[in-house]
Structures are given as C-alpha cells and as structure tokens.
Design brief:
5-stranded mixed beta sheet, 238 residues, 8 helices, globular, D-Maltodextrin-Binding Protein, domain 2
C-alpha cells in the first residue's frame, strides 16, 4: 500500500463534481504490482483494476482508467484530471487534509525490507524508498540515511546496484520482487506504518464517495472482497 506524504498545501478545486460527468475516471499509478500495473497488452491490470471494475459495476457507474505518476497523483485528482485515486494509497491524516477517502478496502499491510543479504544494518545503512511515501517519511523520522527515488522499480535497482543497503516498501510489492530475483531477499524485520488502503476523491464529491463506500461495504458483506484480496495476495483479509 503506497503511502503518499502530503507536503504541499491543499489545492483549490477547479473541476466540476464527478457525479455531473457521464464517465468516472479512475486514476492509478500502473507501476506497483500486484496492486496495479501495465500488462503486456498495455492495459492497466492488477488487484485494483479488478476491484475498481467491480465497484463501478455495483455502483452502476461507467468508468474508465487513467494512469498517472505517483508524485503528482493527488494534485491531478484535485485539479480534475480524473475523479478517483485507486492506487494502493493508505488513508492518512495528512492526505485527508487535501482529499477525501472512502472506507478502507484492505486492512493495513506491513512494510518490509528487501536486501541482498540478511546481515544488513538497517539503522546504520542507506535505505531506499519511493519519494512521497510514508515509508520514506518513516526512515527520515528515525534519523536513518534515506535515498529516495521517483518510482518503485528504481528503489529495487538501487539495492541491486549497491547504492542502497535495503529498500523499505509494502511487503506485498517486495515479495513479488524477491520471488523473481534469487539475489534479493526479504528481511525478517517489518514495520507497521500507515492505515488501510482506500479510494481518494475530491472533497466536493461526497455523493460519489457514498456510492463507492456502499459498493465496498457490499463486497465486504458478501465475501467477494476477501476472495479478491486472497487471489492477488495484496494484504491480510478482513
């Protein structure tokens, strides 16, 4: 679950309410498997694509998908480039000052360390993290040496290339990377930071938030959300 740390003031809403539109645009990063990624056909795929499509169907909304770089994903929501964020974004107080959130659709997921050796000195080494995440904020708050990158792939490359001793990110993301590279391993140490993951919306779109809230709750109630979480291995279940 990506955890963007808001460092800018709230932007003024310049777009009309999403419910006034014929199509609801679903914004995601497309670079954080298994949560969201671009498949071989060039389409947005992953847990949140499947989840978002189901939520739109239950809410009786026509939706289309938009990919956006992580660094600007909240500003571009506020400015009206799309109507929701569904991108592994943890619900935090800092973000809630700028945008609104649905109820969480996954519980909090531990953050893990990926390294090339079990003997890494986490507190004395160089730790990579994606910029504007609360993993990056956590490292900085500890007073450790932080190396930030714009994309999650770059954080892992920094470990491979010896620029960083480890990377801190969501366990579900790093587990997939470790499974694909025998030279990388998950460390036993984990950190519980951030809250559950929810959809981000403009504060002016209360009606749209209520529709998605109801759809999320219906998936929790009938068990389909837990089935989807288990299928994609993104988090613990409810």
């Amino acid at each position: 679950m990506k955890k963007l740390l808001i460092t800018t003031a709230a932007l003024a809403v310049s777009a009309s309410a999403a419910m006034a539109q014929d199509v609801i645009r679903m914004g995601t990063e497309g670079a954080y498997p298994p949560w969201n990624f671009i498949n071989d056909s060039g389409e947005i795929d992953g847990f949140e694509r499947e989840l978002g499509d189901e939520l739109c169907a239950r809410a009786e909304l026509t939706c289309e998908w938009v990919s956006n770089d992580w660094d600007s994903i909240i500003p571009n929501l506020v400015s009206g480039n799309y109507d929701t964020i569904i991108a592994g974004m943890s619900i935090t107080d800092e973000r809630d000052e700028v945008i609104d959130f649905t109820q969480a659709y996954t519980p909090p997921d531990p953050s893990a360390y990926l390294a090339t050796s079990e003997d890494v000195d986490i507190e004395g080494g160089v730790i990579a993290a994606q910029t504007n995440t609360i993993q990056a904020a956590f490292i900085a708050e500890q007073g450790w040496s932080l190396l930030e990158f714009a994309t999650p792939e770059e954080t892992i490359a920094a470990v491979r290339d010896g620029e960083a001793d480890a990377v801190l990110a969501d366990m579900s993301f790093l587990a997939a990377a470790a499974a694909e590279d025998a030279d990388l391993m998950l460390l036993e140490r984990t950190e519980m930071i951030g809250g559950g993951v929810g959809m981000g919306l403009r504060e002016s779109d209360a009606e749209l938030r209520e529709k998605f809230d109801a759809a999320i709750q219906s998936m929790k109630d009938d068990g389909t959300l837990n089935e989807m979480i288990t299928k994609w291995e993104v988090s613990t279940t409810w």
